[in-house]
Amino acid sequence: MSMKHFNIPQSELHLTYSRSGGAGGQNINKVNTKATLHWNAVETTSIPHDVKERFLKKYSKRLNEEGVLTLAAQEHRTQNLNTSAVIKKLHDMLNSVAVAPKKRVATKPTRSSVQKRLLGKKLQGEKKKTRREKITY
To answer: For residue 28, what are the domain limits?
Structure first.
């Protein structure tokens, strides 16, 4: 599924940058490459209402009290790549709830499968009955 049907305006996305952890030598100490995205999922108007409901239900544990989702990316060594990565994470999360799950249709077992099951139970019971110790008084 493509990411084109969610056009979130730049005004709704709040990006901050900080220093990344991990390897990178002196570059780590002087360049803010870690990208952190803050997006208010509760107050957004850029996604359809049903998608928003599914998103809030699925990712409720990742939202703070105000309904703000915080995502971070620091796997790349440049700020631009980390910014793209964190926006892609948001789009992937939205795409995971974009399509409503199919409703389950309850079905009955077939008559023959019920008969086979009952016959198997009967045979198992007969087998165990022959193993019982006969008690005579």
So the answer is: 10-96
Q: What is the layout of strands, in order, in the sheet containing 68-73? A: 13-18, 34-40, 68-73
Phi, psi (rounded to 5 degrees) for 19: -80, 135
- The strand pairing partners of 49, in sequence order, are none
Count: domains in the chain = 1
Q: N- to C-terminal Cα distance for the chain?
A: 76
What does pTM read for this prediction?
0.69
119: pLDDT confidence band, cut at 50, 70 and 90? very high
If residue 113 lies in a helix (H) or strand (E), which one and from where to where?
helix 111-131
Q: Which residues of 3-23 are buried (b: 16+ CB within 10 A; e: fewer)?
A: eeebebeeeebeeeeeebeee
Question: Amino acid identity of 87?
Answer: I
Q: Considering the domain boundaries, does residue 127 fall inside one?
A: no
Of the candidates 86, 38, 46, the residue with the CA atom closest to the CA atom of residue 64: 38
Q: What is the mean pLDDT of the chain?
A: 87
Q: Which helix (H) or strand (E) holds 70?
A: strand 68-73
* Residue 117 located in a structural domain: no
